[in-house]
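Record type: monomer structure entry
Structure origin: computed from sequence
Chain ID: A
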Amino acid sequence: MSDTGARARGHSLVEVLVAMAIAAGVLVFASALFAQAGETIAAAREATAATMVARRQLETFLGQPAAALIAQGSWHAPAPELPEGNADASFVALGAPGIDDPPVRIGVTVTWTHRGRERRVTLRTVRF
């Protein structure tokens, strides 16, 4: 066999090293994308859970008589779906006193901590 025949069948060490470096770079980039996607999914899951906590409280307010809905306050809501197992929530329900069935504006805000950062979801509605 001649030297050119052996060369045509394989790759040089430099070519293999360059190909491995490119493959390693692509893998590092792809793993960073997967890590970021996982973080985004976790944050979205928590936001959905907080929205459900706020919705449950909003439904509670909507079931009350209008005269009872002139209030403002806060509570510590159990939320096993969230990282710390609870959420701080506040509400505002504003009606018009003196009217038998006034329109009522209701707002519920749920606050929780995600990786050291405060997150918040607010739901608002008007009941006529």
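Annotation 1: Residues 3-127 form one domain.
Annotation 2: Strands lie at 71-78, 86-94, 104-114, 117-127.
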